[in-house]
Fold this protein.
Amino acid sequence: MLTGAKVLLIGASGQIGRAVARRFADSCEIWRVADFNGPESGEKAGFREDMPYSIDLSAGRLDRLPGDFDYVFHFAEVRDPYSVTEGLEGNCHAVARVMKHCRKAKAFLHLSSAWVYKPDPDSRRAFSESSDIGRNFGGQYAASKIAGEAAARAGSLILGVPTVICRANVVYGPAGGGALDQAIDDFVATSQVRATAGTPACFSPLHEDDVADLIEPSLALAAIPPAIVNWCGDEIVSWHEIFRHIGRVIDREPLESGPLESARPSCAQDPALRRSLAGPTRTSWKDGVAGVLQARHAGVGWRGVA
Amino acid sequence: MLNGMKVLITGHTGRIGEAIAERFAPVCDMWGLARYTREGSWEEAIARGITPVRGGMGRDSFAELPTDFDYVLNIAAAIHPTTTQEGIIDNCDGPARLMGHCRDAKAFLHVSTVSVHQYSDEERYVYSEDSPLGAGIGSAYGVSKLSGEGAVRAGAIMLDMPTVICRQNVQYGGAHPDANVFEQVIDRFLETGEVPVPADRKYFCSADYLYDIPDWVEPCLAYAAVPATVVNWCGDEAIDWIELFDHIGWMVGKTPVFVKTDRFPFPNSIQDPSRRQSLAGPARTPWREGFRHSLEMRHPELSLRR
């Protein structure tokens, strides 16, 4: 599907963007765009010289790019908007600007978040694509991502671009950068784990290599109005389970500590639709975290598989 | 501004839409888009000078609807969606499809709601246009309207169409056959003497008088821009529920019996009217006067104390 295609990848410096670019770099013409003026600059990851385009999406400087892309992957987002305006600019208006510029695309893939789902008192509840949305999380993050999904819907309907909305869970892997990766790095460095109080927070973590497998099956689902697919792993696991396991592997006792507000709230997802499109994920969470430890913490003494 | 123009109005069979249509249908070429399910509403539209076109916004064909409107007043909303997914079809996809259809309009006015905000626990919190957005009141309605704002924001950018989002408080007044929840509470008080009050808080809102709303339409259309602007549609005064019913009781000669309930139907919603005041001047009708008019219209059998 993507072989030989001209692809615009927005948000190229992030974990998902890098994993996807690695996978498809040899088989198609990928134009990578990132905003290197933002606080989470890719510069520190050493990517700048490798990036052909650095564009501030909120300023709408897309005229430097051609308009004849076959496919668009919109992974860019503002993760921690400090105001309503910043959230809407980065996570809603930017989507509209990119879609407008790429209105001739065969399909548009919009990365959303599992944290748009309405919270449930049962922390192991697995949200399906038709579950209710609506939560307050991350300041203006969840609200602006809901508005961003709406922008992708509007773009699909107004411009006639087939679109798929992918709601991602915790994505992790050797490249690092996500909430789980950060917590693993912190745990290795300090033995501390940020944990939520009360009921265990549960997730459906998705390995970065598995993300790349989902691109083509998700694009095939693109439609008007948009299709929605959960980007999550096959297993539901609690934060505590993950870190008790890592503790056993590297022979440390996790000290669960705050600040509590920095831990993500529970959000598990139903992988049924994703499995029906792309088959089971290749990486179990235990294998995945072992790979992270080997890749980023090779110096730490570890016992192999506990 | 609207004089002699070709204007599309949606939701004119509802309360706000009817008040606006009554004001402007005589001076412009007004077309209506609605389902016209209420008996007689199609004939009422024609009698009012509106050219009716039957259709739902979320899914139905717009083949019968012209495209050459000068202004679009999008007032229709599905106010009781059972799921967010259902609500998004009517309240998000609908406005997007309408914008795409009327893409040459000079301006698009979209009526939204104060319940797109993140709900504050402070009884007297004042929602400004820049207050945090969120899952609001937890209803599928609020979330689907937040999506609707995202959709019209995207439409404004993609079509370069000046757009204004008007966030409506609770309105009251008028003889419309659909009593809203506010008026149902008044009717119940007149019958039984009982008034529900929230068990856990004092309730305040910025209810607006239905017949003041048409005053705000043209000033808000003039304020439409790209990216979209936002204006609160609310009364000028914060209304204390207890004081309101003490006053209604005084007018009708009946002492209210306040009954605490855990299922009070309204979240607190004081809104900041200052932006609307700067555009359109003060609201014409103070609440004491507005509720008097409302009682006179809905209950002509009563003689009210002055």
Q: What stands out?
A: Chain B has a mean pLDDT of 95. Residues 6-170+208-233 of chain B form a domain with the Rossmann fold fold (CATH 3.40.50.720). Residues 140-159 of chain B form the longest helix (20 residues). Residues 70 and 171 of chain B are 27 Å apart (CA to CA).
